[in-house]
Amino acid sequence: MTKIPNPSQNNQTNTAIFERRESKVRSYARAMPRKFIKAQGVWMHDSNDGHYLDFLAGCASLNYGHNHPVMKQALLDYIEKDGIAQGLDLYTEAKADFLNAFESIILKPRNLDYRVMFTGPTGTNAVEAAIKLARKVTKRELIVSFTNGYHGMTLGALACTGNATKRNGAGVPLNHVVHEPFDGYFGADVDTADMLEKRLSDPSSGLDKPAAILLETVQGEGGLNAASTEWLLKIAEIAKRHGALLIVDDIQAGCGRTNGFFSFDGMGFTPDIVTMSKSLSGMGLPFAVTLFKPSLDIWSPGEHNGTFRGNNHAFVTATATLKHFWSDDQFQIEVHQRGAYLSARLEKIADQYGFSTRGKGMMRGIDVGSGVIASEITANAFDKGLIIETSGAFDEVIKVLAPLTITESEMAKGLDILEQCIRNACSEDVGAAA
């Protein structure tokens, strides 16, 4: 077994100011009550001299790790020369550099022709723009989303989200969305794409013609449910046949997390609209875009906007990220190798304890069947120096979102901790049952 990290020996953290002034809505801090002071690569350091392997990576907003030197230097150089920080939607050199890099490195090699809409700085802003545009283009209201989908916390995106706890926070009805069963929702023997086609083709089904079909190819918060290529191709054809736009939410599954740069790379279909955020900036700076086919660009000037759609610091780091990681295939090859290693290790652990694995690429996890057990495992892991979280309808899936830049040695350390914590939890369950 590889040597594990050094967590805090002193578990006492002064949290008084947070408890006194910060809203009770905070969540991650409750499971990880430390005051973190710095981070580099896959490591986070707390104020008690503890260091932790980060298998959460800002919920996939840090695909390239913390403070990657290439992005950090690009940003420092830009700030040093008094580069524009906030530019609304004005033309700036930083925006031009990003668009040129995105066009030449990402779009053209994939034969994609998308307009880039700079929305507000978070993923939910990109989703709001996408569903608003779909309704504007098609002159229809209904959005088809899927069970266990997660698309954001603002009202339009929240209406498309399945999680009851998050939906209940809205305080108003969440209308004009229907949640159809995702791939595998009823088991492997039920084709839910055929079910959707049947419903849309039957004028007496009660399902109106939708403006759009919105999906994640791998459902991050919903439990790492990965749709098959066959199912996705069927959904793309269904959308086309029924005059709906296909929206792929690539906010968590994109930027190399599950496949190529886009989660749908090489699958044989082209979404009408794509939403991106999280790791788009490369180092955690707020940045989101909505991509769509040029024929859909029917916006009037200012019809949809946001003050912080001009985060030039994020443009700078995003451009550096594209040039450093995506100019050739080497990084993608390395990520594929890391994903294969992660898959093999998780499968071995799951098989040993009668669990199952979920996900794809570097977005994988273990379904331990119980949110209580999963929480016990992740809490134990944190005490041993591993930051890792859960997902799924009942928080039953332990989710590995390690930075894509992690070394095999670092990944082995984290997975050794995870395996030890699962072993401990299962031993306790056996002991309790006896």
Features:
globular, 7-stranded mixed β-sheet, 17 strands, 434 residues, 14 helices, alpha/beta, 4-stranded mixed β-sheet, Aspartate Aminotransferase, domain 2, 38% helix
Structural description of this entry:
This protein has 14 helices and 17 strands. The protein is of the alpha/beta class. A hairpin with a 4-residue loop joins strand 2 and strand 3. Helix 5 runs parallel beside helix 11 and helix 9 packs parallel to helix 10. The chain is globular. It has a domain of about 260 residues: Type I PLP-dependent aspartate aminotransferase-like (Major domain) (Aspartate Aminotransferase, domain 2). The protein starts with 15 loop residues before the first helix and ends with a helix. Helix content is about 40%, strand content about 15%.
Query: Which spans have pLDDT < 50 for at least 5 consecutive residues?
Result: none
Q: Which architecture of the domain at 69-325 does the CATH hierarchy give at level 2?
A: 3-Layer(aba) Sandwich
Q: Characterize the largest beta sheet: strand count, sense, and whether it forms a barrel.
A: 7 strands, mixed
Q: How many alpha or pi helices? A: 14
Distance between the termini: 29 Å
Question: What is the strand content?
Answer: 5-15%
Q: What would the principal axes of the Cα set say about the shape? A: globular
* Lateral arrangement of strands in the main beta sheet: 4-12-11-10-7-5-6
How many whole angstroms does the radius of gyration measure? 22 Å
CATH superfamily of the domain at 69-325: Type I PLP-dependent aspartate aminotransferase-like (Major domain)
The CATH topology of the domain at 69-325 corresponds to Aspartate Aminotransferase, domain 2
* Mean pLDDT, all residues: 96
Helix content: 25-40%
